[in-house]
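TA notes, week 10

Several of you asked for a full example with nothing omitted. So below is the full record: structure tokens for the whole chain, then the designed sequence directly under it. When grading your own attempts, check the secondary structure regions first.
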């Protein structure tokens, strides 16, 4: 989960920049290539983007349909850039927890894509150290997103 201005969850500060969806789709395909069942990984990402777009997620009948549906959900989620970035980040973090050794884009790589397209947002990795008594396990799957109200 990304930490960002809570009002962005309810009111979009702006769309994701052009080109970001294309580049992140390419990264999803690379991640899927590491798994014996590419469709399973595409469906995984599709579920996160469906949630960000406030749409139900249904399993596709083939890899081709899964990729088509993923593209639709990514474009719809792209109407709210912070939720879009969060969906991509959270999906990757969940895969890392589920499959030991799978390589997913980290915050630095996501930032590279965002910066390449002047998206106006930047992720910040979570702090490594947490105060005593807090849930240290959160460090691996939280980060912050900062940016302007649109690209």
């Amino acid at each position: 989960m990304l930490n960002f201005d809570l009002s962005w969850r309810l009111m979009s500060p702006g769309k994701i920049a052009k080109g970001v969806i294309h580049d992140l789709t390419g990264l999803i395909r690379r991640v899927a290539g590491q798994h014996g069942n590419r469709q399973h990984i595409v469906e995984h990402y599709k579920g996160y983007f469906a949630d960000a777009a406030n749409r139900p997620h249904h399993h596709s009948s083939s890899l081709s349909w899964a990729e088509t549906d993923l593209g639709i959900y990514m474009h719809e989620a792209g109407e709210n850039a912070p939720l879009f970035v969060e969906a991509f980040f959270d999906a990757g973090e969940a895969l890392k927890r589920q499959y030991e050794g799978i390589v997913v884009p980290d915050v630095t790589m996501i930032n590279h894509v965002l910066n390449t397209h002047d998206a106006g947002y930047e992720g910040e990795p979570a702090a490594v150290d947490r105060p005593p008594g807090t849930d240290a396990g959160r460090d691996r799957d939280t980060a912050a997103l900062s940016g302007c109200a649109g690209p």
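The CA atoms of residues 121 and 147 lie 4 Å apart. Use that as a sanity check on your answer.
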